């Protein structure tokens, strides 16, 4: 009897003890589910998730895709969403979320969730630094054009002391250049045009690098074009807005192995108006449709613009005049010389240009010869291009030397007019 009573007491004690352990079991802290992102911008994003632990808080850890858990940025929140800020543009981030049910009870980390920030829009105001305009992605000196802009080239280019140039146009989202004849297209409000000038150290070996001098900017703001110039630093890491103009020595080796040097002139804001001014307004000079109507690597540039909806109002390039390449001997001498004068001289020597009050020359390519005054003033033109003297010879500004090849071309043409 005593043995049975003892066993009963032991059994009851064990039962009560086990009952206390059941009460002390910690409930499961569940991982979050259905992580999602919204309101993604170039430097921020909103993350949200779902949970069944309604009274929990959360630790969120994030970093550039591929980071090791524990080495990222961690933030604690009490809601099921959070706004991440100060993110890098055009960058993929990984995110992990951990549920905190109590100080001693947390879930496993969620599966990784990834999102990518947007490419920033091109800025439509003159910032202090070129990098702030968002025209380029990655390292600035690599001049990698943002997908928010596109490159354009000209069949005949302006001579600028043998400098190379990268030309780009950035149009606001959903807009286009509109056809308006063979000249300049109609550019939408907030268009940005940029031209970067640089010298290769050695034209025989481009792997030796280059020196970037300046990036000139045109912005169409409130219906009018405004100019700005960014001067690159010696480290080639940034360019700073500089409207005062300056000069600096430049040396390079050409394709024949000759060492060349010049004192390159970065224009002031006043100089920009001298060339870009017409009837008191600033206008672009280079990107006329006739100057862009030619093939690059077997593809017509204007056709490419039309296909990409960057140029509208015209079905194809066939109805647009093509400005000849002055270096292409397949064109007649007159066409080549007139094309050279169009891009190098006509911005000043046209009605409304900065020289219109001083001369009756009209050097636009489309101007008939008998209306251009080229024949009547051929001797004056010949004289003004035959030497270099700052403030007297032509071009009036923008160079620090004669363009030997260009002068020979024009002189050869003028000789046929005698």
From TrEMBL:
Keyword Acetylation attributed: no
- Show which residues constitute the signal peptide: 1-22
* Ranges where the Fibronectin type-III domain occurs: 31-120
* Record-linked InterPro entries: FN3_dom, FN3_sf, Ig-like_fold
Sorted keywords for this record are: Signal
- Show the coiled coil region(s): none
SMART domains (UniProt xref): FN3 (SM00060)
Alphabetical list of PROSITE patterns matching this protein = FN3 (PS50853), PROKAR_LIPOPROTEIN (PS51257)
The highest taxon in the source lineage is Bacteria
Would you tell me the protein name for this molecule? Answer: Putative repeat protein (TIGR03806 family)
The scientific name of the source species is Winogradskyella pacifica
